[in-house]
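User: quick one, fold this
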Amino acid sequence: MSKTNAGRFFEDYRLDEVIEHAVPRTVSGGERALNHMLYPARHALYSSDAFAQGCGLPASPLDDLIVFHIVFGKSVPDISLNAIANLGYADCRWLAPVWPGDTLRSSSEVIGLKQNSNGKSGVVYVRTTGTNQHGQEVLQFVRWVMVRKGDPDAPAPETKIPGLKDSVAASDLVVPKGLDFTDYDFTLAGEPHRLGDYTVGEVIDHVDGVTVEEAEHMLATRLWQNTAKVHFDATAREDGKRLIYGGHVISLARALTFNGLGNAQMLVAINGGAHANPCFAGDTVRAWSEVLDTAKLDAPGVGAIRLRLVATTGGEVGALKGDDGKYLPHVLLDLDYWALMPT
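Assistant:
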């Protein structure tokens, strides 16, 4: 009897099952340093204890996307080890800050299944929850992933496509306890723009680009313990290329938004997201954002801005889909999210 695990295939999933993912991880300032090494991340709240304390927090929490990557990575061996591609996200909320010294673990509930018409793969929908050492939920999100069948002749699981929220309401956003932007230091933050300076429909070109290297992607997938075969094994795809982890593209694009959105400090929700086209080493990632909405919140001086973040390999700023309704071939990522910003 084999002691190794080939991972789950599409026919192995059952609706409503809850999967507890292995190997909790205690996080430290090391994750922050490596995150800043891999991405041009410069948002002040995640860079400086002193700045965070000036905003009412006890110290600088770990970057939202560090938490996302770790919780996501824990789920990969059980959910997407045999994935063809991660397809999208919805109903994602950060529920509590994560501090150096916290221990994160995650679990996933299977909320939907649909076999593809080719009979060789299917789409698995899961709701993944990250918790800390106190059992407090820190992050929850839905994602759907295309997974190979191990046996093409295996019967398809029961089909269910879950109903998903179009967006997270501003009233459901969780603001960290104590956060106060009343005395926000715009000089140290690096940009003067506050919530009222942005208008719905405004498109922001973030100007800069980052060329993806094979080495940095391999470091990132190992750092986040993302073991999906398509990211590690060049033989896992017919074209012989390692697929760049979609979260790597998200972090690159989010870091690029500092130029134009330097005061969009904290991600608090992802309304929806799609990896529109694959990204490979050698691609240069660029980004633009569209302002979708703004909202005032109860925390002093704190508002929320809803943004569409689009990562591309070029093309016209603001161009997203063709006349056929499909994403243009240069579009890598379409991400709809809420962030906290001083009013």
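User: anything notable?
Assistant: The helical segments are 29-38, 49-54, 64-79, 186-189, 214-223, 229-232, 246-256, 258-261.
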